[in-house]
From TrEMBL:
UniProt entry keywords in alphabetical sequence: Coiled coil
Name of protein: Biogenesis of lysosome-related organelles complex 1 subunit 7
Organism: Characodon lateralis
Source superkingdom: Eukaryota
Coiled coil: 83-110
Species classification: Eukaryota, Metazoa, Chordata, Craniata, Vertebrata
Recorded family membership: Belongs to the SNAPIN family.
Length: 129
């Protein structure tokens, strides 16, 4: 699973940036977990389809009565192709989520640094109320 990393901010930073970060962070982490789960199930499904196609080929070769299983095998292979396509789409979506998460953290850190440099924001020590 792609690890979701966020820049941890000290209290007292830009409230808008921190609020945005705290709002987006759980959604991105939850979406990342779900995408990972779907990708794992897609891989399992692809393996089952491959096994079933192999078994159908074997049955067809050993069958005394000539049954035409080729259309079913073709349907299975077509399904497998679609599963692979969906898996690729999920991988791309997960990568975009990772980049979005990284960009949000980078922008938040940049704004915090900019505020600290301008003197508008002074980090509070944990001992001061």
């Amino acid at each position: 699973m792609a690890a979701v990393t966020m820049v941890e901010l000290s209290s007292g930073g830009d409230p808008v940036a921190e609020g945005l970060l705290e709002l987006i962070k759980p959604a991105i982490q939850q979406l990342d977990v779900h995408v990972h789960s779907v990708r794992e199930s897609q891989v399992e499904l692809r393996e089952h389809i491959d096994n079933l196609a192999t078994e159908l080929f074997r049955i067809n070769e050993h069958q005394k009565v000539a049954l035409d299983l080729d259309p079913y095998v073709k349907k299975l292979l077509n399904s497998r192709r679609r599963v692979v396509l969906v898996n690729n789409i999920l991988q791309n979506a997960q990568e975009r989520l990772r980049r979005l998460n990284h960009n949000v953290a980078k922008e938040t850190a940049r704004r915090k640094t900019m505020l600290e440099a301008s003197g508008v924001f002074t980090p509070r020590s944990p001992s001061r109320p």
